[in-house]
Design a protein that fits this description.
single chain; alpha/beta; Rossmann fold; four-stranded antiparallel sheet; binds adenosine-5'-triphosphate
Length: 242
């Protein structure tokens, strides 16, 4: 095993993974630098979710290495991997999956409550994140009273409430209308940049990818390119792959 470069928070080498014979990752290598927003852009089914699940320790790749800082994730015992995920990573799904019986702030505070943070402190932290994400006014409501975009912002607050080192966002705005999607994306990226949180963003949408510092493109489980997003380069690179 070769240790990863020092300035990469996440580093993956030669990842291969297939789902019941369907190849999802074919020899993928990449590094994610501390504090950057990296977009993984590709068409539906190109392997983005599988990649994020491998990088975040949810799935152990069938071949290859994943490192978080100087720890090898691919060889970590399951309990240690779970702890790392809980303490250091945040995750946003395409659909907001909230606990219907809990108020919005309790949903946002859930990772803190589950790790034993006292209720009052967990509530204060959750409310701070909800304010940052423009969802503070909904704190006392239950999920069914919230619009889809509001529910997604509660899910974002839940992913950020532990101030993770790395936030993984899998198509976080794919199910929202364009205006709501832009708002959610803006609040997430502002929050991660102001807290120096590293973000890996999977998207099929070239416009969404332009919030990133760097875009890597994917097709049929393979990396097809990289671009720095300082103009329309990233959008163009992403368009080529979708
Ligand atoms: N649990 C599974 N069982 C079988 N095949 C799967 C499974 N998960 C993913 N696949 C297949 O693996 C390939 C990559 O899927 P993956 O979800 O990683 O891609 P994606 O780019 O995230 O797509 P999407 O945007 O639709 O989620 C696809 O061909 C998909 O059909």
């Amino acid at each position: 095993m070769v240790a990863p470069p020092d300035n990469d928070v996440i580093w993956a080498r030669s990842l291969h993974h297939a789902h019941r014979g369907t190849p999802a990752l074919v020899g993928v290598s990449l590094g994610v630098r501390e504090g950057e927003i990296l977009a993984v852009c590709g068409a539906r089914g190109s392997g983005k979710t599988t990649l994020l699940r491998c990088l975040s320790g949810q799935l152990v790749p069938q071949q290859g290495e994943v490192w978080f800082n100087s720890s090898p994730v691919h060889t970590m015992p399951p309990l240690q991997r779970e702890r790392m995920r809980r303490d250091r990573f945040g995750w946003i799904d395409p659909e907001p999956v909230l606990v219907p019986e809990l108020k919005a702030w309790e949903n946002a505070a859930l990772p803190l409550l589950l790790s034993g943070v006292p209720r009052r402190a967990a509530k204060a932290t959750a409310l701070e994140w909800m304010e940052r994400l423009d969802i503070g006014a909904a704190a006392q409501k239950r999920p069914h009273l919230l619009l889809r975009a509001e529910q997604q912002r509660v899910a974002v607050a839940r992913a950020l409430v532990t101030t993770p080192s790395v936030l993984f966002a899998d198509e976080p705005t794919a199910t929202l209308h364009a205006k709501d999607a832009a708002h959610v994306l803006r609040t997430v990226t502002t929050a991660v940049r102001s807290h120096r949180i590293t973000m890996v963003l999977a998207t099929h949408d070239p416009d969404t990818a332009t919030v990133a510092d760097r875009v890597i493109t994917f097709s049929d489980g393979r990396r097809t390119g990289t671009a720095t997003v300082d103009d329309t380069e990233g959008r163009a690179a992403c368009s080529l792959s979708v």
